[in-house]
């Protein structure tokens, strides 16, 4: 039986997934990246191997992905997280034609083919407006953890309208609203709605074809899921394993590679 | 018809979505056409002479969310470019028949092409104003350019546009401009009868109606305003410069005034104050319009008239109005305004005129930050 | 990782020519014996100022040289201290910073201008840039106002896919206006140089330019062959230096004769700038000068060769038929400025130019490099992307940085996007090849 691995080195977290040739997930692991990227890759790989009860020689192919993909020194191939997210999303939700991915630095829209190949993609431009960074700046200003943002925002009754999606200026906007006595949940809902609008505008560039799968760290924010769904007028696929989609996609690419190597 | 409060009427009209304005004008004028003009200035006499409504299409203000246009224009492009495109992409320009852009900046030039591709139904044109003001042939060129546009407008209107019609449009707009100058004069009388925000609202409304209706509005407004009691107040007198294209929300202008500034002169809606005096109604009307552009128009960031130094008109404006300071209010990412600032700053410092630089975007909702910047500036002036 | 291999003689020749040019500028700055005319690159009338013996100086090229040597930032900061905005064109800021550093660049000293000739060819920033320089230097300035190409009457009602055909026009009044201004300019040059206009000399200069243009057009057509003999973006910028700074001279013509010989040989021997040409791309937009090498390697890694680029046509569209004509010197100079350069044309005409490149040069994909500094180039490139990817179905990638300001370049972000794009292209190509193999 073939076993392959995907290691996704992101700016905050590093993730790994092991699969076998029946496409079953054998193990997964998530750790904080920290300051040393190559070490994080080593650590997460060791961890996923021990969870899966395997050792390095059992793994036929390792694909590294994410910003730190070139630091996965034991990796056989490097593939961008765009290709990996597309692959992983279609694996989890085979009807996926559009992927919305929101991470810390980037927001992306990917239009995918039937086998998880990338037909077209767009990413946010240089400006970090409307990415996870904006969200974390906003929650910091409000003294909240990122995880609390989603639930709290659902309690909003009168969402505010933000005049900017600039991650630098959002702070003064929020301070102004607080000074006006606006409720925290209304401000949060305003933040989610502003990001959702900007993200949808971004993803429209590739064309939004259902089904739409939402991946990346921000997809844990239930308020963001609802805001996107309302604006799109359609439901989103969101996996409880959404953080692992990149690593899973990498493992799937590794499997295709290993299988074609065996064939030839 | 007597209007209870012409200024309020103007405010309401200026905040009505532009698509609705065109629609209601057209339903009152069946069969007539409407041609949009983009800032800063346009020879709207030509459109009016053809019996069409010249309507100012200058972005979407802060009532509109940009959801489509920012996929066409990048984050470093100013808001008015995107919101104007958004109007089209969201079907709000469906009743518009033509759209004229001008050689004011590079994004506006490219927007012309983007309009043409995305809205093939619209007649889209672009006027290249002369930038060689010293050349003896500039006037001849500009008159020919106006002639080219006249032909296209006549095609659109399905009628000839005669010299006589243009001359009569010039005369009508001369009357409008004369009243606008009177409005300006009130701002300088020291009695605080009229605010800059109100003036801007009146001019914005004027961009959305036929000049004959604008004349009525202005006459009503002049009557109401000059009967206001007014009083001298302890404010810092300023000249405001830099908002000649993208327009700030009226609330933002109000915030600046509430922060302690009396704005004696500004360049909001500059198109209606483009000319220093009347345009000749004798002879070739296109030559008259071109002549006025070259020799009778006010200073603007989008004109590069090398016969004077760039900051000279600003310094002169401060001297003439007796202002104490300058507020440079520029639209975010507006390259002409931001370039001018470097020269303004140098000249203002040389002439010991205090100034403050503030950036805005038309889509702003919260004004607290700008207000406190201006307040700080006003305090620094008061305690100096 | 495969990198671009050495491109042959032309790079050394170019280096010599350009350092010779900058030595001349430095000498002129030191001796103050020569008159210099400051001009802009796009569609300039260098032939005319050469006829009066002016030494042409190009602030854009000076800024570019600072950028490519990674020396621009201190100059940019110097301008920002004077009140220029973060959001202003960084070419202008680097150049203004250079002026306020006594015109002393690390690679040359630039002579003060005897004439500031603002050839306003489409770029609005040009007007502001030279207006500022004129105020700082107090040198005489002439705005040569070139009416931009406007949308034509007939075209307005055509369908969406009719992007900027030749029907976009500039008219007879434009031509007359420009011709008359050239006559005014001649009078200004006569006054400054105390020389009479020598038409015979202008014709000789025009003859050099005509032949240079002919060679350049032929060279640019060579990238239609598979594999392409050179990279029409990264190697073309090498050739653009002499084309713009030295056009109208014999040494420029000699350079292009050498390039032509070398490229002809490369075509015959099927030599490609990379080990293997896997993808043929068209690049739209100027290069990120401070990271030129890094940027090139992003594409070389994938075996992607630019077979055409819009940037290489900012100064003139010789490949689409323009030639300087010694028999109609002023007419052809004004045609060059009005119609035959990229910047004075409409954005839709650029779409059409790129569409032709993709079809006639047989390209697989379009790369749009969007630079913040130059909004004439970049504003609206999202619409361009929409047109090519959605209406024409051409794989299109848009990446962002700047042509001069190193603060806008993020290598990791850029690499990620380029890699993802070529992963998907490579995948599609392999599927296509596989299908072709089984049929």
Q: How would you describe what is shown here?
A:
The complex is a heterotrimer of chains A (264), B (384) and C (439). Chain A has helices spanning 37-52, 81-92, 132-141, 146-153, 170-179, 184-203, 222-232, 245-263; strands at residues 3-9, 13-20, 25-32, 59-65, 77-78, 98-102, 107-112, 118-123, 212-215, 236-237. In chain A, 40% of the residues lie in helices and 21% in strands. In chain A, the strands form two sheets. A five-stranded mixed sheet of chain A has the order 3-2-1-4-5. In chain A, strands 8-7-6-9-10 form a five-stranded mixed sheet. In chain A, strand 9 (212-215), helix 7 (222-232) and strand 10 (236-237) form a beta-alpha-beta unit. The radius of gyration of chain A is 19 Å and the shape is globular. The longest helix of chain A has 20 residues, at 184-203. Chain A has two domains: 1-93 and 240-264, Nucleotidyltransferase, domain 5; 96-238, ATPase, nucleotide binding domain (Nucleotidyltransferase, domain 5, 2-Layer Sandwich). Chain A is α/β, with parallel strands linked by helices and 264 residues long. Chain B is α/β, with parallel strands linked by helices. Chain B has 14 helices and eight strands. Chain B has helices at residues 6-15, 18-28, 45-49, 79-89, 106-118, 138-157, 163-187, 196-206, 211-226, 250-258, 285-295, 312-321, 335-350, 368-382, and strands spanning 34-37, 53-56, 98-102, 123-127, 236-241, 261-265, 325-331, 355-360. In chain B, strands 2-1-3-4 form a four-stranded parallel sheet, with helices on both faces. In chain B, strands 6-5-7-8 form a four-stranded parallel sheet, sandwiched between helices. With 439 residues, chain C is of the alpha/beta class. Chain C has one domain (8-438). Chain C has helices spanning 9-31, 46-51, 59-68, 73-81, 90-99, 124-137, 172-193, 199-221, 236-245, 250-268, 292-300, 329-338, 347-360, 375-378, 381-391, 411-438, and strands at residues 36-38, 55-57, 104-105, 108-109, 115-120, 141-145, 279-284, 304-309, 365-371, 396-401. In chain C, the strands form three sheets. Chain C has a four-stranded parallel sheet, with helices on both faces. In chain C, strands 8-7-9-10 form a four-stranded parallel sheet, sandwiched between helices. In chain C, strands 3-4 form a two-stranded antiparallel sheet. In chain C, helix 3 (59-68) packs across helix 5, helix 4 packs across helix 5 (90-99) and helix 7 (172-193) packs across helix 12.
């Amino acid at each position: 039986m073939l076993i392959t691995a995907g290691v996704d080195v992101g700016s905050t977290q590093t993730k790994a997934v092991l699969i076998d040739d029946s496409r079953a997930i054998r193990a997964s692991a998530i750790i904080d990246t920290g300051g040393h990227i190559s070490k994080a890759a080593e650590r997460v790989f060791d961890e996923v191997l021990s969870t899966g009860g395997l050792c390095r020689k059992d793994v036929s192919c390792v694909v590294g992905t994410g910003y730190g993909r070139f630091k996965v020194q034991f990796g056989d191939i490097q593939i961008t997280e765009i290709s990996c997210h597309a692959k992983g999303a279609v694996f989890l939700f085979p009807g996926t034609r559009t992927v919305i991915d929101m991470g810390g630095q980037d927001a992306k829209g990917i239009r995918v083919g039937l086998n998880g190949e990338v037909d077209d993609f767009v990413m946010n431009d240089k400006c970090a407006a409307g990415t996870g960074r904006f969200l974390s700046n906003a929650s910091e200003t409000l003294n909240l953890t990122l995880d609390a943002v989603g639930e709290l925002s659902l309690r909003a009754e009168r969402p505010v309208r933000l005049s900017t999606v600039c991650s630098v200026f959002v702070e003064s906007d929020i301070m102004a609203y607080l000074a006006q006595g606006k409720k925290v949940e209304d401000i949060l809902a305003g933040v989610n709605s502003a990001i959702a609008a900007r993200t949808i505008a971004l993803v429209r560039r590739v064309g939004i074809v259902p089904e739409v799968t939402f991946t990346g760290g921000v997809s844990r924010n239930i308020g963001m899921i609802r805001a996107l769904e309302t604006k799109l007028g359609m439901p989103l696929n969101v996996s409880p394993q959404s953080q692992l989609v990149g690593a899973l996609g990498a493992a799937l690419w590794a499997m295709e590679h290993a299988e074609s190597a065996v064939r030839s | 018809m007597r209007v209870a409060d012409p200024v309020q009427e103007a405010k309401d009209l200026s905040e009505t979505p532009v698509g609705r304005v065109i629609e209601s004008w057209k339903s009152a004028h069946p069969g007539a056409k409407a041609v949009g003009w983009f800032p800063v200035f346009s020879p709207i006499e030509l459109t009016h002479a053809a019996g069409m409504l010249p309507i100012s299409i200058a972005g979407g203000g802060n009532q509109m969310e940009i959801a489509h246009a920012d996929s066409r224009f990048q984050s470093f492009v100013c808001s008015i470019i995107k919101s104007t495109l958004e109007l089209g992409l969201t079907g709000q320009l469906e009743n518009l028949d033509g759209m004229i852009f001008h050689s004011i900046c590079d994004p506006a030039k490219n927007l012309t092409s983007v309009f043409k591709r995305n809205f093939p139904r619209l007649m889209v044109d672009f006027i290249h104003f002369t930038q060689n003001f010293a050349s003896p042939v500039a006037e001849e060129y500009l008159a020919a350019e106006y002639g080219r546009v006249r032909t296209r407008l006549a095609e659109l209107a399905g009628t000839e546009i005669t010299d006589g019609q243009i001359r009569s449009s010039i005369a009508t707009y001369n009357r409008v401009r004369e009243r606008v100058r009177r409005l300006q004069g009130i701002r300088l009388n020291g009695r605080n009868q009229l605010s800059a925000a109100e003036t801007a609202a009146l001019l914005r409304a004027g961009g959305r109606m036929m000049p004959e209706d604008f004349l009525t509005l202005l006459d009503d407004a002049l009557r109401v305003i000059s009967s206001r009691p007014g009083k001298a107040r302890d404010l810092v007198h300023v000249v405001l410069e830099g908002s000649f294209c993208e327009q700030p929300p009226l609330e933002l202008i109000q915030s600046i005034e509430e922060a302690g500034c009396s704005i004696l002169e500004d360049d909001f809606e500059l198109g209606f104050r483009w000319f220093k005096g009347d345009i000749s109604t004798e002879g070739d009307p296109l030559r008259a319009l071109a002549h006025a552009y070259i020799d009778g128009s006010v200073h603007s960031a989008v004109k590069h008239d090398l016969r004077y130094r760039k900051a000279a008109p600003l310094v002169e404006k401060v001297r003439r109005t007796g202002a104490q300071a300058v507020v440079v209010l520029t639209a975010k990412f507006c390259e002409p305004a931001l370039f001018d600032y470097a020269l303004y700053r140098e000249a203002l410092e040389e002439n010991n005129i205090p100034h403050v630089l503030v950036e805005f975007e038309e889509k702003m909702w919260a004004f607290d930050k700008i207000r406190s910047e201006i307040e700080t500036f006003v305090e620094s002036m008061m305690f100096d | 990782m495969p990198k671009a291999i050495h491109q042959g003689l032309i790079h050394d020749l170019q280096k010599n020519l350009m350092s010779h040019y900058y030595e001349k500028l430095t000498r002129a700055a030191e001796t103050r014996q020569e008159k210099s005319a400051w001009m802009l690159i796009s569609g300039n009338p260098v032939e005319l100022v050469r006829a009066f013996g002016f030494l042409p100086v190009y602030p854009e090229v000076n800024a570019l040289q600072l950028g490519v040597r990674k020396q621009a930032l201190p100059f940019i900061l110097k301008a920002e201290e004077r009140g220029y905005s973060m959001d202003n064109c960084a070419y202008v800021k680097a150049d203004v910073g250079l002026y306020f550093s006594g015109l002393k660049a690390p690679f040359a000293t630039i002579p003060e201008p005897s004439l500031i000739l603002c050839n306003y060819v489409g770029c609005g920033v040009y007007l502001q840039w030279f207006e500022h320089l004129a105020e700082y230097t107090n040198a005489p300035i002439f705005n040569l106002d070139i009416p931009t190409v406007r949308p034509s009457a007939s075209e307005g009602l055509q369908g969406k896919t009719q992007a900027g055909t030749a029907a976009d026009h500039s008219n007879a009044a434009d031509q007359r206006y420009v011709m008359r201004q050239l006559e005014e300019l001649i009078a200004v040059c006569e006054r400054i140089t105390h020389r009479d206009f020598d038409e015979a000399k202008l014709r000789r200069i025009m003859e050099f330019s005509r032949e240079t243009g002919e060679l350049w057009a032929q060279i640019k057509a060579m990238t239609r062959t598979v594999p392409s003999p050179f990279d029409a973006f990264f190697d073309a910028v090498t050739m653009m230096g002499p084309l713009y700074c030295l056009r109208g001279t014999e040494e420029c013509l000699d350079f292009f004769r050498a390039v032509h010989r070398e490229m002809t040989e490369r075509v015959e021997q099927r030599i490609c700038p990379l080990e293997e040409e896997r993808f043929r791309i068209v690049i739209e937009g100027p290069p990120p000068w401070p990271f030129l090498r890094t940027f090139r390697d992003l594409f070389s890694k994938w075996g992607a060769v630019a077979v055409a680029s819009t940037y290489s046509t900012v100064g003139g569209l010789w490949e689409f038929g323009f030639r300087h004509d010694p028999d109609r010197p002023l007419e052809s100079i004004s045609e060059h400025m009005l119609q035959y350069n990229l910047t004075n044309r409409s954005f839709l005409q650029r779409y059409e130019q790129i569409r032709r490149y993709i079809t006639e040069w047989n390209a697989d994909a379009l790369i749009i490099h969007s630079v913040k500094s130059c909004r004439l180039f970049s504003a609206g490139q999202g619409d361009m992307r929409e047109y090519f990817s959605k209406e024409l179905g051409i794989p299109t990638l848009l990446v962002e940085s700047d042509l001069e300001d190193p603060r806008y370049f993020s290598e990791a972000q850029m690499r990620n996007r380029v890699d993802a794009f070529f992963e998907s292209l490579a995948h599609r190509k392999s599927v296509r090849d596989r299908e072709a193999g089984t049929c």
